[in-house]
Give the backbone structure.
Amino acid sequence: MPRNRKRNLIKVRLLFDGEDTETPWAEDLGPVRGAGPGARRVRLANVPFLHAKPTWGDVIIVEPDPDDGVLTWDCRGVQWERVGTRIERDSGRWAMVLDYRPLEGAELSRDFDLLCKSAEEIDVIPEGCLDVTNTRPGRLYLAVPDTLGIVEVLDHLYARNLPLTLKLIHPLDD
């Protein structure tokens, strides 16, 4: 599905046992028969920052929170190794996190755009999290196809000779 296509996007809430609240955009795929009242099937349209799974493209079932009505997905105590059991349709992507800093003389906005376009060349979905400041690097989250490993992604990005330093934050081993 093209990333820029207009879709029926809604905000949903992701939780990990009631904590780590995050509200990504999701494509509303419609009501879910046999689920609770107001339950919706959605496809995530962002790369979440606090949750490695679900990630961009995953289809999940969200239900209205009884307290505030916000459409919510919670892992409900499922351990990380089994979180896939709470995902209706896995997009076949995993989360990768990179920190980046511009080299001297770099034009940050242009070079960040080139970094994102370089990722998209190999079907990696980029999502900026933190901008570069004087005291910290910028942070980029990536939804990487299962067919690619850490080495393949980094080799591709380094081969672009962008005037940015890159540092792998997550995962730390392949």
In short: Residues 60 and 88 are 5 Å apart (CA to CA). Residues 108-121 form the longest helix (14 residues).
